[in-house]
What does this fold into?
Amino acid sequence: MPVKWWTHITDLIYPPLCASCGLLRPLDQHIFCLDCLHQLPETGFHMHAENPFTMHFKGRVRLRAGASFLFFSRGGGTQRLLHQIKYNNQPELITTVGKWYGKQLTGSTLWEGIDVVVPVPLHWKKQRKRGYNQSAVFGAAIGEVMHVPCHPNALLRVTHDRSLTGMKRLERVETISSSFVVAKPALVRNKHVLLVDDVLTTGATLESCAIALQNLPAASIRMVTIACGEL
Ligand SMILES: [Zn+2]
It folds into this structure.
Protein backbone atom coordinates (compact mmCIF):
# COMPACT_ATOMS: atom_id res chain seq x y z
CA MET A 1 0.00 0.00 0.00
CA PRO A 2 1.49 3.40 -0.92
CA VAL A 3 2.32 5.57 2.09
CA LYS A 4 0.29 8.78 2.00
CA TRP A 5 2.19 12.02 1.59
CA TRP A 6 0.92 13.46 4.87
CA THR A 7 2.34 10.45 6.72
CA HIS A 8 5.79 11.59 5.57
CA ILE A 9 5.07 15.14 6.73
CA THR A 10 3.98 14.05 10.22
CA ASP A 11 7.00 11.72 10.43
CA LEU A 12 9.23 14.73 9.87
CA ILE A 13 7.54 16.60 12.68
CA TYR A 14 6.96 13.56 14.93
CA PRO A 15 9.54 10.96 13.87
CA PRO A 16 8.47 7.39 14.74
CA LEU A 17 10.08 6.41 18.03
CA CYS A 18 10.22 3.02 19.71
CA ALA A 19 7.66 2.81 22.53
CA SER A 20 10.23 1.14 24.76
CA CYS A 21 13.73 2.55 24.17
CA GLY A 22 12.61 5.84 22.65
CA LEU A 23 15.08 5.58 19.75
CA LEU A 24 14.07 6.06 16.14
CA ARG A 25 12.39 2.97 14.73
CA PRO A 26 11.79 1.90 11.13
CA LEU A 27 8.75 3.33 9.44
CA ASP A 28 6.59 0.21 9.75
CA GLN A 29 3.39 -0.49 11.63
CA HIS A 30 4.93 -1.63 14.90
CA ILE A 31 5.37 0.48 18.05
CA PHE A 32 8.71 -1.13 18.96
CA CYS A 33 12.07 -1.17 17.24
CA LEU A 34 13.25 -4.64 16.24
CA ASP A 35 15.71 -4.90 19.14
CA CYS A 36 13.01 -4.18 21.72
CA LEU A 37 10.49 -6.41 19.94
CA HIS A 38 12.87 -9.35 20.13
CA GLN A 39 13.55 -8.72 23.80
CA LEU A 40 9.92 -8.16 24.78
CA PRO A 41 9.45 -10.07 28.06
CA GLU A 42 6.18 -11.88 27.22
CA THR A 43 4.93 -14.20 29.98
CA GLY A 44 2.97 -16.66 27.82
CA PHE A 45 0.70 -17.16 30.89
CA HIS A 46 -2.49 -16.92 28.81
CA MET A 47 -1.87 -20.38 27.32
CA HIS A 48 -1.94 -22.12 30.71
CA ALA A 49 -4.92 -22.67 33.01
CA GLU A 50 -2.55 -22.73 35.97
CA ASN A 51 0.34 -20.27 35.95
CA PRO A 52 2.10 -17.90 38.41
CA PHE A 53 -0.71 -15.34 37.94
CA THR A 54 -3.54 -17.74 38.83
CA MET A 55 -1.44 -19.24 41.66
CA HIS A 56 -1.06 -15.72 43.07
CA PHE A 57 -4.85 -15.58 43.56
CA LYS A 58 -5.32 -19.16 44.72
CA GLY A 59 -7.50 -19.24 47.83
CA ARG A 60 -8.29 -15.54 47.43
CA VAL A 61 -10.60 -15.39 44.40
CA ARG A 62 -12.26 -18.03 42.20
CA LEU A 63 -10.55 -17.35 38.88
CA ARG A 64 -11.45 -19.13 35.66
CA ALA A 65 -8.27 -17.81 34.01
CA GLY A 66 -5.63 -15.17 34.64
CA ALA A 67 -2.63 -13.76 32.80
CA SER A 68 -0.30 -10.81 32.32
CA PHE A 69 1.05 -9.89 28.92
CA LEU A 70 4.56 -8.82 30.00
CA PHE A 71 6.98 -9.29 32.86
CA PHE A 72 7.89 -6.09 34.63
CA SER A 73 11.44 -5.51 35.78
CA ARG A 74 12.98 -2.27 36.97
CA GLY A 75 14.76 -0.54 34.12
CA GLY A 76 13.50 -3.14 31.63
CA GLY A 77 11.52 -2.73 28.41
CA THR A 78 8.12 -3.01 30.11
CA GLN A 79 8.95 -0.25 32.58
CA ARG A 80 10.09 1.97 29.72
CA LEU A 81 6.88 1.23 27.81
CA LEU A 82 4.69 2.08 30.82
CA HIS A 83 6.76 5.21 31.40
CA GLN A 84 6.18 6.37 27.80
CA ILE A 85 2.45 5.77 28.20
CA LYS A 86 2.20 7.56 31.53
CA TYR A 87 4.56 10.47 31.22
CA ASN A 88 4.45 11.17 27.51
CA ASN A 89 0.67 10.86 27.57
CA GLN A 90 0.37 8.27 24.83
CA PRO A 91 -2.79 6.24 25.49
CA GLU A 92 -2.73 5.06 21.85
CA LEU A 93 0.23 2.84 22.78
CA ILE A 94 -2.03 0.99 25.24
CA THR A 95 -4.61 0.53 22.49
CA THR A 96 -1.97 -1.09 20.28
CA VAL A 97 -0.78 -3.33 23.11
CA GLY A 98 -4.40 -4.20 24.06
CA LYS A 99 -5.33 -5.24 20.52
CA TRP A 100 -2.14 -7.24 20.24
CA TYR A 101 -2.83 -9.10 23.48
CA GLY A 102 -6.55 -9.47 22.69
CA LYS A 103 -5.58 -11.34 19.52
CA GLN A 104 -3.36 -13.66 21.53
CA LEU A 105 -6.18 -14.35 23.99
CA THR A 106 -8.60 -15.30 21.22
CA GLY A 107 -6.10 -18.00 20.22
CA SER A 108 -6.67 -19.92 23.48
CA THR A 109 -9.87 -21.71 24.60
CA LEU A 110 -9.28 -20.43 28.16
CA TRP A 111 -10.56 -17.04 27.06
CA GLU A 112 -13.68 -18.13 25.19
CA GLY A 113 -17.20 -17.11 26.22
CA ILE A 114 -16.40 -13.75 27.82
CA ASP A 115 -19.52 -11.51 27.96
CA VAL A 116 -18.08 -8.26 29.21
CA VAL A 117 -14.74 -6.53 29.86
CA VAL A 118 -14.58 -4.56 33.12
CA PRO A 119 -11.56 -2.31 33.77
CA VAL A 120 -10.44 -1.48 37.31
CA PRO A 121 -11.63 2.10 37.80
CA LEU A 122 -9.42 4.98 38.86
CA HIS A 123 -10.59 7.36 41.51
CA TRP A 124 -12.33 10.17 39.63
CA LYS A 125 -9.87 12.75 40.96
CA LYS A 126 -6.95 10.77 39.55
CA GLN A 127 -8.74 10.24 36.25
CA ARG A 128 -9.48 13.94 35.93
CA LYS A 129 -5.82 14.72 36.55
CA ARG A 130 -4.51 12.15 34.08
CA GLY A 131 -7.29 12.57 31.54
CA TYR A 132 -7.87 8.85 31.04
CA ASN A 133 -7.78 5.50 32.81
CA GLN A 134 -5.13 3.28 31.26
CA SER A 135 -6.91 0.10 32.38
CA ALA A 136 -10.04 1.30 30.55
CA VAL A 137 -8.06 2.02 27.36
CA PHE A 138 -6.45 -1.44 27.58
CA GLY A 139 -9.85 -3.06 28.24
CA ALA A 140 -11.56 -1.26 25.36
CA ALA A 141 -8.89 -2.49 22.93
CA ILE A 142 -9.20 -6.09 24.15
CA GLY A 143 -13.00 -5.85 23.97
CA GLU A 144 -12.82 -4.57 20.41
CA VAL A 145 -10.71 -7.51 19.28
CA MET A 146 -12.88 -10.03 21.20
CA HIS A 147 -16.13 -8.40 20.03
CA VAL A 148 -17.43 -7.94 23.56
CA PRO A 149 -18.50 -4.69 25.24
CA CYS A 150 -16.19 -2.93 27.69
CA HIS A 151 -17.91 -1.19 30.62
CA PRO A 152 -15.51 1.17 32.43
CA ASN A 153 -18.31 2.35 34.73
CA ALA A 154 -19.49 -1.06 35.92
CA LEU A 155 -17.32 -0.76 39.03
CA LEU A 156 -16.85 2.39 41.06
CA ARG A 157 -13.92 3.33 43.28
CA VAL A 158 -15.52 5.11 46.17
CA THR A 159 -12.65 6.30 48.33
CA HIS A 160 -9.02 7.24 47.98
CA ASP A 161 -6.82 4.40 49.16
CA ARG A 162 -5.12 5.14 52.43
CA SER A 163 -1.37 4.74 52.30
CA LEU A 164 -0.81 1.00 52.09
CA THR A 165 2.89 0.93 52.82
CA GLY A 166 3.73 -1.07 55.87
CA MET A 167 0.36 -2.81 56.01
CA LYS A 168 0.08 -6.56 55.93
CA ARG A 169 -1.67 -8.11 52.92
CA LEU A 170 -4.95 -8.86 54.73
CA GLU A 171 -5.16 -5.33 56.10
CA ARG A 172 -4.53 -3.97 52.61
CA VAL A 173 -7.32 -6.08 51.17
CA GLU A 174 -9.68 -4.82 53.83
CA THR A 175 -8.68 -1.22 53.26
CA ILE A 176 -9.13 -1.40 49.53
CA SER A 177 -12.14 -3.70 49.44
CA SER A 178 -14.30 -0.99 50.91
CA SER A 179 -13.27 1.16 47.94
CA PHE A 180 -15.00 -0.76 45.14
CA VAL A 181 -18.69 -1.21 44.55
CA VAL A 182 -20.59 -2.58 41.60
CA ALA A 183 -22.17 0.57 40.24
CA LYS A 184 -24.06 -1.04 37.34
CA PRO A 185 -25.15 -4.52 38.51
CA ALA A 186 -27.19 -5.24 35.37
CA LEU A 187 -24.03 -5.05 33.25
CA VAL A 188 -22.22 -7.79 35.15
CA ARG A 189 -24.73 -9.95 37.05
CA ASN A 190 -24.53 -13.59 35.84
CA LYS A 191 -22.04 -12.54 33.17
CA HIS A 192 -18.66 -14.02 32.34
CA VAL A 193 -16.45 -11.10 33.24
CA LEU A 194 -12.92 -10.24 32.12
CA LEU A 195 -11.44 -7.89 34.72
CA VAL A 196 -8.50 -5.82 33.45
CA ASP A 197 -5.86 -3.66 35.11
CA ASP A 198 -2.53 -2.16 34.08
CA VAL A 199 -0.04 -3.76 36.48
CA LEU A 200 -0.33 -6.67 38.92
CA THR A 201 1.76 -6.11 42.05
CA THR A 202 0.21 -7.37 45.31
CA GLY A 203 -3.09 -8.15 43.60
CA ALA A 204 -5.04 -6.42 46.37
CA THR A 205 -6.90 -4.09 43.99
CA LEU A 206 -7.87 -6.84 41.55
CA GLU A 207 -8.84 -9.06 44.46
CA SER A 208 -11.23 -6.51 45.92
CA CYS A 209 -12.81 -5.82 42.52
CA ALA A 210 -13.24 -9.55 42.01
CA ILE A 211 -14.83 -9.97 45.43
CA ALA A 212 -17.34 -7.21 44.63
CA LEU A 213 -18.20 -9.05 41.38
CA GLN A 214 -18.31 -12.47 43.06
CA ASN A 215 -20.76 -11.20 45.67
CA LEU A 216 -23.21 -10.03 43.00
CA PRO A 217 -22.65 -12.72 41.61
CA ALA A 218 -20.96 -12.67 38.23
CA ALA A 219 -21.03 -16.04 36.41
CA SER A 220 -17.23 -16.25 36.26
CA ILE A 221 -14.19 -14.02 36.57
CA ARG A 222 -11.04 -13.94 34.47
CA MET A 223 -8.28 -11.35 34.80
CA VAL A 224 -5.59 -9.85 32.61
CA THR A 225 -3.03 -7.09 33.14
CA ILE A 226 -0.52 -5.43 30.83
CA ALA A 227 2.32 -6.35 33.15
CA CYS A 228 3.14 -8.17 36.36
CA GLY A 229 5.95 -7.87 38.85
CA GLU A 230 7.63 -10.85 40.45
CA LEU A 231 4.91 -13.32 41.52
ZN1 LIG B 1 13.43 0.04 21.04
Remarks:
- Residues 18, 20-21, 23, 32-33, 35-36 surround zinc ion (CB under 6 Å).
